[in-house]
Design a protein that fits this description.
about 30% helix, Penicillin amidase (Acylase) alpha subunit, N-terminal domain, globular, nine-stranded mixed β-sheet, alpha+beta, ten-stranded mixed β-sheet
Length: about 750
């Protein structure tokens, strides 16, 4: 007995220090940030009746400081997640899911890119980022009880820049390539024909348990990775005065997650240095990514060019070298430590990351047991000058100046739809598409041989090679994540034959694009009422994946309850408007078929299996197969619970949802930030309206602005944007001055 006691004490003497070490090592191990000598920043934050912050300052840097403070007041939790990712420490917060992003942070050399490129940015751009970092630091210092992770602060401008280097490539589908390569699953390419030996379908990872599911949802809303990345979308509309019957109109209708690191945050900025802009950003940015100033505005939609090339390397026996042009080169290898939170402790997990002259390299075991290596090269690799380009776009005053910034090819991807007070409208299929040599024989849509240097491109194509429309004869432009060759109507659209196939421009439509093209082409005048009806349209065309699904239902043999459900769907009016007995079941059925087409999966879902699954769900939770869709699809935040309409790919977008315990679908991704701007034809001041799904203070349940926009959002209504200072002050609910002065 004494021996057991002594043994227990000895074991405790070992385990207790080990536990303490695992619980405390990570902050001490973390990279220490050096903060440059601080200047004094002073900004005024005025919040309007909806809590939207309007930040004023003498200099642009003063305003950027205020942007950080205002955003932290509303959503410091998400900002910390983004900063942790920017430092490769997200696994210490979000566990295994977070560590996946930390691995990618090292794989893509986000920090190295920032270290090399940030010092080369113009001084005023760096000043903006240093001021933003200073605002985050001051808030963290004054609210230490909210800080999630030791030694996360202070941060500097380079830290913020590293976050840009990490996140941007995932908006054009890099996650759909990295995820299967890392996990050893079959590789799926986003575009083009099937690649021999690499079927496209990837089974989604299913976290176990409620807490794991919540962490996974949180992690995947910070960075678009894997299957979720393929569902990013948006609608955008621009209408010239001659077609609107009045003003020049720009409608921004982005579809992003409603929460997290790629959810929109609305604010306005104004400085005495000429920066005056209203719009929205993602957490971790000192400036808006879309919106308008006095002179012009723009919005974005995700485009899907072939921005990524994969090279299969020829490796030596121990995978320490690869062959290039007949010579062996050492594979660059770096060992990194990934922090992985497991309950109260953080485990240090060692992983190797590799690089070749092509770019990041992923090694995995092949079918014969030997190591195989794949190198990745993507548009915009090694660049962060988008930080400067977005800042300059914010301050542009003319179409020429605006296009001059885009022509730098600094912003790696996304369509730009533009309008201005002069009555100009424009569309640019913006993408830093790799400048692939056309005089070599290669299948750029397949896996390329990695032992040929002539297949390693350098930099993007020229701006003049991109699809681009300015002031089309139709008087309107739209995009809904469709190909750029259906953008302005018959007689105004671009000819796809005029663009090289090596560019890898997608040739796809969405249901939203089919509906928008049809409705806008049919409209004699696109006045406000007509355009609102188009933007909130809830109908489907029986084309594409919708036709595939309904053809399958017509050929489906079923009996009993399944036959009843099939017949209910066959009688549907193809409108997700909460006005029909089939709407709820159709909403559930369409989602996976839309996803399969959008992500280029190899096979369609089985219509019979899907029908049985969704019938069972409706029967279990509603006791019937035809409940009103408004009882199924909900907008939920705090104690607010509102009915919604629209579908996964309707212009009124309710794209994805979380299935709650009561069987309801709580929207997590769809119509997010909407802004409607108009420049009057008589030259008067720009005016705009906007809406967010919840409110400005997304993660502050005690704030009156946690849910105060929900009623308007659900009712498809917009609130006024207070762009002009006198309007802001007339509707102010709070005013404060923030500074880092002692």
């Amino acid at each position: 007995m004494k021996w057991l006691k002594r043994g227990g004490l000895a074991l405790a003497a070992v385990l207790v220090p080990a536990f303490v070490a695992l619980a405390t090592w990570e902050p001490f191990f973390a990279r220490e940030t050096t903060v440059p000598a601080q200047r004094t920043y002073t900004a005024e934050i005025v919040r309007d009746e909806y809590g939207v912050p309007h930040i004023y300052g003498q200099t642009d840097a003063d305003v950027a400081y205020g942007v950080a403070v205002a955003h932290a007041e509303d959503d410091f939790a998400t900002l910390q997640d983004v900063i942790a990712m920017s430092k490769g420490r997200y696994g210490a917060i979000a566990g295994e899911e977070g560590a996946q992003f930390d691995y990618i942070y090292h794989l893509l050399d986000a920090r190295g890119t920032a270290e090399r490129e940030y010092p080369e940015l113009p001084a005023d751009t760096r000043a903006l980022f240093e001021a933003y970092a200073a605002g985050l630091n001051r808030f963290a210092e004054e609210h230490a009880e909210e800080v999630k992770l030791g030694n996360l602060f202070p941060v500097n401008g380079e830290d913020v820049a590293a976050g840009f280097a990490l996140r941007q490539p995932f908006f054009f589908g890099l996650g759909n390539i990295i995820e299967p390569l890392v996990s050893g699953k079959p590789l799926r390419r986003e575009f083009g024909p099937d690649i021999p030996g690499f079927p496209r379908e990837i089974a989604p990872r299913q976290p176990e348990g409620e807490s794991a599911r919540e962490v996974a949802r949180t992690a995947r809303t910070v960075l678009p990775l894997g299957d979720d990345a393929g569902l990013l979308g948006s609608n955008a509309f621009a209408v010239a005065p001659e077609k609107s019957g009045g003003p020049t109109v720009l409608v921004s209708n982005s579809h992003q997650p409603l929460r997290g690191g790629v959810a929109w945050y609305e604010f306005s900025v104004e400085s005495e240095e000429g920066w005056h802009f209203t719009g929205a950003n993602f957490p971790g940015s000192p400036f808006p990514f879309l919106g308008h100033n006095e002179h012009l505005g723009w919005t974005n939609t995700v485009n899907r060019p072939d921005m990524v090339d994969i090279y299969e390397l020829v490796l030596n026996e121990d995978a320490s070298a690869y062959r290039l042009d007949g010579e062996w080169r050492d594979l660059e290898t770096q060992w990194v430590t990934l922090p992985v939170r497991m309950g109260p402790v953080v485990l240090p997990i060692r992983r190797a990351v590799h690089r070749s002259v092509h770019g990041p390299v992923i090694l995995r075991e092949g079918e014969d047991g030997r190591q195989e290596g794949f190198a990745i090269r993507y548009g915009g690799i090694g660049r962060i000058d988008q930080l400067d380009a977005y800042y300059r776009l914010n301050k542009a005053t003319s179409l020429e100046e605006w296009e001059g910034e885009l022509s730098r090819m600094a912003i790696p991807s996304t369509n730009f739809i533009y309008a201005d007070r002069e009555g100009n409208i424009a569309y640019v299929y913006n993408a830093a598409i790799p400048d692939r040599p056309e005089d070599v024989e290669a299948n750029w849509r397949g896996v390329l041989p990695g032992d040929r240097s002539d297949l390693i491109w350098h930099g993007p194509v020229g701006y003049e090679e991109l699809p681009r429309l300015v002031n089309p004869e139709s008087g309107w432009i739209y995009n809904a994540n469709n190909e750029p060759f259906t953008a302005a109507g018959a007689g105004s659209d671009l000819d796809p034959e005029a663009f090289s196939p090596v560019l890898g421009i997608e040739r796809k439509q969405t249901n939203r694009s089919r509906r928008a093209y049809k409705l806008m082409s049919e409209a004699e005048v696109l006045d406000r009422a007509t355009l609102e009806a188009i933007k909130y349209d809830r109908a489907y065309e029986r084309e594409g994946y919708v036709a595939v699904l309904w053809d399958a239902l017509e050929n489906l043999e079923a009996d009993g309850e399944l036959a009843e459900a099939r017949d209910l769907l066959l009688g549907w009016d193809f409108t997700a408007d909460n006005d029909g007995p089939a709407d709820a079941l159709a909403l559930l059925m369409i989602r996976d078929f839309m996803s399969a087409e959008y992500q280029n999966k190899h096979e369609w879902p089985d219509a019979g299996e899907e029908l049985a699954k969704h019938v069972a769900h409706l029967k279990r939770h509603f006791g019937r197969i035809d409940p009103p869709m408004s009882e199924l699809l909900r907008l939920r935040q705090g104690d607010r619970d509102l009915p919604l309409d629209g579908g996964s790919d309707t212009l009124r977008a309710s794209t994805t949802w979380e299935v709650e315990e009561d069987g309801r679908l709580s929207l997590v991704h769809g119509d997010s930030f909407i802004q409607w701007a108009e420049w009057p034809a008589d030259g008067g001041r720009v005016r705009s309206r906007s809406i967010q799904p919840f409110g400005s203070a997304t993660t502050r349940p005690d704030s009156p602005h946690h849910t105060d926009q929900m009623e308007l959002y659900a009712a498809k209504r917009l609130k006024p944007v207070r762009f002009w200072r006198e309007d802001v002050l007339a509707n102010a609910r709070s005013r404060q001055t923030v500074t880092n002065a002692p």
